[in-house]
Request: fold
Amino acid sequence: MKRHERVRALLGLVLLAAAWPLVRFAQGPARDIVVTDICHTPVRILEPQAPRRIGSAVILHGLSASRGLMQTAGQWLAALGLRVYLVDSPGHGDSTEPFSFSHAEQCAGDLVESLARSGEIHLDSTVLFGHSLGGAIAIRLADRFPTAATIAVSPAPLVRLEKLPPEMQPYALPRRMPVNLLVFVGGWEPAISAEADQALMRAAGGERLQREDFRQRRAAKLVVIRMATHTSLLFDRRVKDWSVDWIRSALNEPSAVSVSAGSPVAGGLLGLAGLLLLFPAAASGLSSLLGGRATEQASAFPTTGKVLALWAAASLSAVSLQRFWVPLKGLRLLTGDYLASFFLLSGGLLLVLLWKEARAGIHWDARAVVLACALSLATVLAFGAWLTWQLTDAWMNAARCWRFVAATLVCLPYFLAEELALGPPAAGKRRGRFALFLVLRLELWLALLLALYAFRSRQILVVLLAIYLLLVCVAQRGASDAVRRRTGSLAAAAMIGAILTGWFIAAVFPLT
Reply:
């Protein structure tokens, strides 16, 4: 292990030690239950941290999220004095119920009804809080439950917009608008999001903010948060301040005291940075077990022009074929089965087209592959545990574990082809190599985008999760390069890329 790796590892441990109290201080009493009246709905209950309880809040997450992503918002409301119910929708988080848009709304409504019937919540002092798809569901629940207020953060479109395809408009407006409706939209969201939210406010009768409006349960407000994205709103202090003031007014509790909720987001991000700094040292420590770095055999790597042309042909062929046949539909993951099939088809075709180069360049070193598997599984466990603790649910339940194994295996052909095309991470060529990698991934994403808009693939999550896909791609590239530099094994680098991608597919996409 080199000196700079030891220094980075030490800094990583310091960051983890600093992050721990920042996250832990924000987490008050909590317990997990499963409500089983009709749906089997996992719920995390956060007890109020303020001097007295002033009401309740039911929090609904968006598509491809979980109650873990909503935990910070839940802590804000618990600090105000609300008992908070964080809900896993069907097919998300710990729920093994099959996902569909109608089933998600049904289970949310059944949960609220069950809590109200059992006396856990009183509707006249309960706030419905939702993000994205959960925001749309919270608004639609106004038809069934006259709650004290509804807060929707970047709600999915409810007013029909001609610019949006039907798959992005799964719901319509309720027959009556919610009580005391507060809507947030980020300044960096697509313009069409702001258009949908403005149309929603027009349907609600426009902005009303007077005390009498709250008393008559008709207050409404659209808040545009500058320099915020669809997901960053969930961690934005401006959203917290507006929400706390809105709830005080809706519950007629101007004297309610909000205690400090700590710094959970800062702690979560510091911990992730610490784990990233520890990764090179872990890779070097494991690679030392191999007895040194192997030397990659020289082989004839394809030219850049040929690689770009092959990637375009393979990705377009894969999405064209999936118009008629999705080979991994049995995975039953919303968009995840399509994405895994895309990697399988494009990767298989690329290996066929690069057969001569593949025979010369791919060598299976058993020890290096075992190292890559051990390192990647340790990475999945460490990052999954830390993310699940505060930021989002990245821990796989039993229903997702076999999907993780299957997704990893079917992604492997693509990552072998990609490592072959990029060549060794030689000094002096890393920037150009990384640029080529980004272009190749861009070609894949553009093919998926073409399938969505031209072929009507309905895989809308490739757009909604674009930023996360980019972050996962960059992280996976860094991990694969770290292994390849230390082992000299193309196969080991491909294996760690396939495992990390399989983890993302299995952990993030909803079960159907």
Summary: The chain has a mean pLDDT of 90. Residues 28-254 form a domain with the Rossmann fold fold (CATH 3.40.50.1820). The chain has two domains: 28-254, 293-508. The CA atoms of residues 422 and 436 lie 7 Å apart.
